[in-house]
Amino acid sequence: MPLCGSPGSRGVVAPTWQDGEVVWETASPQETEAIGERLGRLLEPGDVLALAGALGTGKTVLVRGVVAGLGGQPADVHSPSFTLANEYPLAPPAATGLDPRRVRGFAHLDLYRIRDAEELPGIGWDSYVTAAWIVAVEWAERAGGWLPPDHLWIGLEHLGDMQRRIQARSAGPRSGVLLRAWAASGESPGEP
Questions:
Q1: Partners of 88 in the beta sheet?
Q2: How many domains does the structure of the chain reveal?
Q3: 189 within a domain of the structure (yes/no)
Q4: For the segment 62-94, what is each residue's pLDDT rounded down to a tens digit?
Q5: Is 71 helix (H, G, I), strand (E, B) or coil?
Q6: What's this model's pTM, rounded to 2 decimal places?
Q7: Residue 52: DSSP 8-state
Q8: CATH code of residue 80
């Protein structure tokens, strides 16, 4: 798949479907953030994004876009590697369409420093991974069986200096709906 745009651009990056996964290739952090922003506009309370990828692949950049899509301030987003969890306020309900009685906010968790999945209750895992939060989990592969059965798995990898591949797959019915809507938001040719 060709890379879209140029470094520094924030153009539309069209995804493709490959073996049940949606795949984007980006040429810049701005394109990665733009893909995250499209996803953020689709999220609802209870949605969990499970992010995986090596250091520097753009997990936090994608989350910045998600926060922008939720009406938050992307400049406020920083990797919670040392705090383990950051909470970000969402835009007023009129701007997001989210029912304030149903959503507490957006939680950004980072499991890089977790040695064992059994440590998750100590960071408030159970209070975040509920129907009241929208959650992004970096280093989600370290969560083991603690991820909810229905989550959106998003893997990021380096293709070059600024280029990234983003692969997403669903793990349940809600994440399947979310994945198809996310792909359609980028002018996908459709799932084969």
A1: 106
A2: 1
A3: no
A4: 999 999 998 888 888 887 666 688 888 776 555
A5: coil
A6: 0.84
A7: E
A8: 3.40.50.300
3-class DSSP assignment, residue 135: strand
Measured in residues, the chain has a length of 192
- One-letter amino acid of 131: A
> Is 66 contained in some domain?
yes
Cα 155–chain centre separation: 10
Q: Is residue 124 part of a domain?
A: yes
- Domain of residue 52 covers 16-184
- DSSP label at 92? P
26-43 exposure pattern, b = at least 16 Cβ within 10 A, e = fewer? bbbbbbbbbbbbbbbbbb
135 residue type, one letter = V
Quote the CA–CA distance of 82 and 101 in Å, as a whole number: 30
Residue 96 lies in a domain: yes
Distances (CA, A) of 40 to 36, 123, 128: 6, 24, 17
- Alpha-carbon distance 189 to 83, whole Å? 40
